[in-house]
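ok trying again, last paste got cut off:
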Amino acid sequence: MTRKEATDYIQKDRTFIKQFPPLGDTIRDLHNAAAASAINRWGISDFERHTREIQGIKLDGGIFAQDHTFEPIKNYMKSVGAKAAWDAATQTGEIATVVLVKSTKTEDFSHAAQQLLKRQNFNPKVMCSDTWPNKKEFWNDLGVEGRLGSFHYQKRIISTLKKTHIDYFDAITDLLAALYAHCPDDYEKLLSALKDGSLSKTGRKYSSIEITQMKGTKTFHDRYAKYLRKQMHEKHAMRQMLDDWFCKHKVTASNPENHPAQGRLDPMRQIPLFTADTKSAVECCKEKTEFLTDPKPLKDMHQYTLPNPNSSHQLTEHLSLRGESKLEAFHDRFAHFANCGMRDSLADSLNLAGTARCNLTIRHVRALVSTNNVENPPEKQINRRKMPAAWEKVVPFFNHSELWCINNMAKSLGCSHPFPHAEMLAPDNGERFFSLHLTEIVPSLAQTKCGEHGNCLCNSCTNTNTTTMSNMPNKELTRPVAPTQPTTTPATTTIITPTAMTNRRNTASQPTQQRVIANNVNYPAAVNYPNCPQPTHHPPTFPIPQFIPMNHQLPFYLTPQLATNAPNG
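nice, full thing came through this time. structure:
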């Protein structure tokens, strides 16, 4: 038998390749260490920066929505003890807080909710929930009015229908028409754009039959719902329409003379559309129609994004201020920020980054909102003409602390700010999100009792003169608020960050670390940026050697000392 010779190793630079791609554990360890590191020019770790960005969410007299979600809990280990995640979103869709809780009881999220309402520049008037009027007493004690979210309201009825029935999608369309109607002016403009071809890239003109067929599909909602404003019906009209909807699709009737059945069995399966729970669900929803109406007029329930000057259809986009639908949309993304069974620190870092970037994307899109709702200002028209309509909603930067570091460097050289619209980082108010709330805040409240309606009675929640958690019994959470005025001295601060990866399978709670932050990002106090002081330090600079003309050019990286000793030729 002839012996086969082994194939030689692949060579690189006359030696064998001895390194391999890093393992998944190594990549996760490096990401976790990088998220907790403050070794950068702006002196703030990503973990701390994302936390403070979420703490800086504002709301002035608007609507916010709160809900529980269960799917993201799979991304944490069972030792954390979380059963759900409680979160709240503003009317624009920005996520103001997310904490892990042991159950859906009021006592488990009351501290986070009260700290949110005590936050500076966060003063809502209406709260939207999927369980209202449940827990009504708790929210009324906090001074907010309650509303029932339309998403779960619809879901309660739709979940009782049989999806395999031939009239399933027609019944959903009729149900939505019983709850709200589109603004006639918006609908007229949309039909005109569809028929003249300005909404199609290829100039396709839709006929009335094609539009009617498309209205019953998901495509119509995904493409054109942003051009239509929804107006909720009044409570009595809504109840009457729900009765008519139920009679239209039921097969049997107890009173055929007054309320005859107009539905049919499925031709193939011979089954009705409704189940045994449909009638009780409709009756329950009819009783709660008074909580479904909008708290404000139609013009105040939307923001208006005027079309790009380069757009062919020139239709105005209407951004709804009903926060519940945006909160449910965030839940879909929230479940995929991290992977199953991650350590607490890594899952928190990924969730914080995903949430902060989601908020930044929303603020970037809302920056296009018109203030007068009439026309684009002349200066905005000039800027928007330079950018394609499909590109103007893409976020250009995610780290605004880095932008302010660049602004300060430019100002120290006598230049104007290259990023004048960069956002200022909010001071740390002591709130903690995700698993840190469950592992750091909740244990410090073990000796605190709850009120009659589940409200938290700790010092920070009952003290009306504070907006931070500085009086919490846990001393590890007590730290000075980071300054927002320009400063030239390093700020010493205690931050809660993920511990460096000493053991990637360690499931214990991460200890608090002391870290000195040399914050080189000097945030100005006003929007009209005044003279800004120079940064506290600059990176080391190295002299660049002069070029030698023509031949005998030395390498660019040689210093003048080496250049004098270099051989000729």
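cool. The longest strand covers residues 63-69. The mean pLDDT is 79.
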